[in-house]
Design goal:
Helix content is about 30%, strand content about 20%. The protein is an alpha/beta fold. Helix 1 packs across helix 14, helix 6 packs antiparallel against helix 16 and helix 17 crosses helix 21. The N and C termini lie far apart (about 60 Å). The structure holds 1-deoxynojirimycin.
């Protein structure tokens, strides 16, 4: 430590005392500096950054990842500024730093908090070697819209699953000790309801009622706050007329007053300046005022705070206590991270980045993330001894960059092991593996290479098609209105199908796709998301039965895009559809009476069921559930309910199954969803093995926000299901009573 103001503050006092002592010494200018984050990416480092740091005008930088540069920036902040306050160095470490895990939506398909935690831990360690001490993850926007490009970054459609995995990610990034080497601050984003963008168009308006906000979109953030997430990022969206970066209800009433959050809130990139573009404020001064009053502590990228806050305080329009609170929130986080004691990174990049442990973690995550959607007549696993030639076809079989997915600033495609290479290494000495790319990219049109692909398939025992969409087709600002396989991929499938050879589709994508037009044309489908660095070896192991698929869908797959939003935990409506009430458009008489068509909530051309439901995923093992029981038919409010079922593996191979618990609250102060996930367990079963799956549910876990926005569990009747998917039929019931 140098002789800066910060270094004179007693290290033995409590964090709050240190925050207060430092704050007392700060000028208004220096306080506003702490509230400002500057972009310092390699090709954008402002010439004057060093001077700005010396003047105390910067609290954080983002996008600096070269360790020498980062340590130098820290040195200037710590040794050459009057106060000596270290910097927060932020980066989007979303699903890996250099070693890339599956996209978050793929990680969600593991339904395995341990795997997700380990992935975040590895990413934190790799990032920390560069001096990055803050990641903008986890992204925990509930998304029910596969058109939205950012569904790739999310943990899917469900509150319970997102809660569990969000907490695991926060724990992984932050570790047991936030100040330890290799721990970095995390950031729950985007607060809030960004995933509800109208028609899945990124940045579009969201219209969410307060009840829905509380019961769905806010819950993962509450879970993250309870798990100790250090920061939150605002969303770009307009929520109910008030864009998130100016939304006092969200940032003060809910986050501070109700949840007692004491970390800090950063705006999203430029989003304070956007308040004017939204039409909420007339100019940047107004935007800075609105955001500060609403509770945005730090501004990312734009400079409305730097340019306006001092004037606003001096003219009396902004109470300096608002500034002080914001700065205290930021300093508190810096103290908790141990940055004052240890501002520089001293981790050995060579031994940590991309090491064997990182690769193993990435492979395990990829293995568990792949969801088998179809497997007719035991087409999979492929049996090496029965094959002499295998055709590997498609634009994504050997595309090292594309398997990594969106938001991989620091990921290295050179490290990727592609499926084509992995299949070669696994079986190349026993089987002739022939590769035809067939299309330049997923958007390609039928061309001569289709003939070559058909010829190779014709000469092979089986054709494995690697289809889907490239990384660039999902992620921020990469929404699609049509979520079929792009280009002429479906045509390629049909041509290969016509050879009469078994056809296996492995689909790499950043979102659920509508697979309706190919599902009947293939024998098996492995949905692999963008599986990351080790996607290839994981897929090869699954194809050849080294490991049995065990991923489960974290989001519903629609039949047609027009069904969106489609999600399993919808409301019943007053006119719920049943198989009997559904009429198909092809079966309607032209002059049929208006009221003859079922009169329930379905689409004439798509019905009401999805192509694949939330929670669904097949295995090479054969799982069977029976004997669902509730220990107590009646449970007192405040007590627990024990629910169990028997799960057996009636197949001939070992497999892992994710057993899922769903509940329906039949009558509510506000209407309740038809099913809600309330528990899950990943279990490994040997062939012939039977286990009892038991869930213990406290009545508090059934609580929801009612009409007056109070959290409550109501006495009454509940249905309960246990099974391997959200459409399981194995159901019983219980009752909650209140005899107090
Ligand atoms: C904009 C994105 O919305 C956000 O998620 C990201 O963390 C920031 N840019 C910083 O890159």
């Amino acid at each position: 430590m140098n002789a800066s103001v910060a270094s004179m503050i007693d290290e033995n006092s409590s964090v709050e005392q240190r925050v207060a002592a430092l704050l007392r010494e700060m000028t208004l200018d220096e306080k506003i500096g702490q509230m400002s984050q500057l972009n310092a990416s390699e090709n954008y480092v402002p010439q004057h950054l060093g001077d700005e740091l010396r003047a105390g005008h910067v609290g954080s930088v983002l996008n600096a990842v070269e360790v020498g540069t980062v340590n130098e920036l820290q040195r200037i902040a710590v040794e050459e500024s009057r106060l000596g306050i270290p910097l927060l160095v932020g980066r989007d470490v979303i699903h890996g730093f250099q070693t890339i895990m599956p996209i978050p939506l793929g990680q969600a398909a593991t339904w395995n908090p341990d795997v997700v935690r380990q992935g975040a831990r590895v990413s934190a360690h790799e990032a920390a070697t560069t001096g990055v001490n803050w990641t903008f993850a986890p992204m925990i926007d509930i998304s029910r819209d596969a058109r939205w490009g950012r569904i790739a970054e999310s943990l899917g459609e469900d509150v319970y699953l997102t809660n569990k995995l969000a907490v695991a990610m926060v724990e992984g990034f932050q570790g047991d000790d936030l100040s330890a080497n290799g721990s970095i601050a995390s950031c729950a984003k985007h607060f809030a309801a960004y995933g509800a963008a109208e028609s899945g168009r990124d940045y579009a308006t969201t219209n969410v009622s307060e009840n829905e906000l509380r019961n769905v979109y806010l819950r993962p953030f509450k879970a993250a706050v309870e798990a100790g997430v250090t920061t939150l990022m605002t969303s770009f969206s307009d929520i109910d007329g008030v864009p998130a970066s100016g939304n006092e209800f969200l940032l003060r009433d809910v986050l501070r007053d109700e949840w007692n959050f004491d970390g800090f809130v950063v705006s999203d990139w430029d989003s304070i300046r956007h308040l004017q573009v939204h039409g909420l404020t007339a100019n940047e001064k107004g935007s800075a005022l609105q955001a500060a009053v609403a509770g945005v502590d730090m501004e990312m990228a734009s400079s409305t705070y730097r340019d306006n806050l001092a004037g606003l305080v001096e003219s009396g329009q902004l109470d300096v206590r608002i500034v002080d609170d914001a700065v205290a929130n930021i300093l508190r986080t810096k103290f908790r991270l141990g940055l004052f004691e240890n501002p520089y990174t001293a981790l050995d990049q060579n031994n940590i980045v991309g090491n064997a442990h990182a690769l193993q973690t990435a492979k395990k995550a990829a293995l568990q993330s792949v969801v088998m959607l179809k497997n007719e007549n035991g087409a999979l696993p492929l049996v090496t001894e029965e094959l002499s030639t295998v055709a590997v076809i498609g634009p994504l079989a050997d595309a090292p960059h594309e398997q990594l997915g969106t938001w991989i600033f620091d990921g290295s495609a050179e490290q990727s092991v592609t499926p084509m290479h992995a299949i070669h290494s696994l079986v190349g000495h026993d089987i002739d593996v022939r590769y035809v790319r067939a299309m330049e990219n997923s958007r390609g049109r039928a061309n001569e290479a289709f003939d070559e692909a058909v010829a190779v398939a014709q000469d092979s025992d089986v054709a494995i098609l690697f289809l889907g969409e490239e990384s660039i087709l999902s992620g921020e600002a990469h929404s699609r209105a049509d979520i079929n396989l792009p280009g002429d991929q479906a045509e390629l499938v049909r041509r290969i199908r016509a050879t009469g050879k078994p056809v296996i589709a492995v689909i790499l994508a950043g979102r659920p796709l509508t697979l309706t037009n190919i599902v009947d044309e293939v024998d098996a489908i492995l949905f692999a998301w963008h599986p990351g660095t080790m996607g290839g070896p994981a897929i090869a192991d699954l194809l050849f039965g080294v490991v049995s698929p065990s991923g489960k869908l974290p989001a519903t797959f629609p039949r047609m895009v027009g069904q969106i939003p489609i999600y399993y935990n919808q409301k019943n409506t007053g006119k719920p559809p049943t198989p009997e009430t559904v009429v198909h458009i092809d079966d309607i008489d032209t002059h049929a009476p208006q009221t003859s068509l079922g009169m329930t909530a379905f689409h004439l051309d798509a019905g009401y069921t999805p192509l694949f439901p939330f929670g669904f995923g097949l295995s090479y093992a054969k799982f069977h559930y029976e004997n669902l029981r509730v220990a107590e038919q009646e449970t007192q409010l405040g007590e627990t309910i024990t629910i169990n079922a028997e799960l057996s593996n009636r197949g001939s191979v070992v497999g892992e199954e994710v057993a899922q618990l769903y509940v329906r609250d039949l009558v509510g102060n506000v209407t309740r969803p038809v099913r809600e996930l309330k528990g899950f367990q990943r279990l490994r079963l040997e062939p012939g093995e039977t286990v009892t799956v038991e869930f213990v549910l406290h009545t508090d876990e059934l609580a929801f926000y009612g009409r007056n926005m109070q959290l409550m569990t109501e006495p009454g009747d509940f249905h309960v299901w246990i099974g391997g998917s959200s459409d399981t039929h194995l159901r019983t019931e219980f009752r909650i009573v209140d005899n107090h």
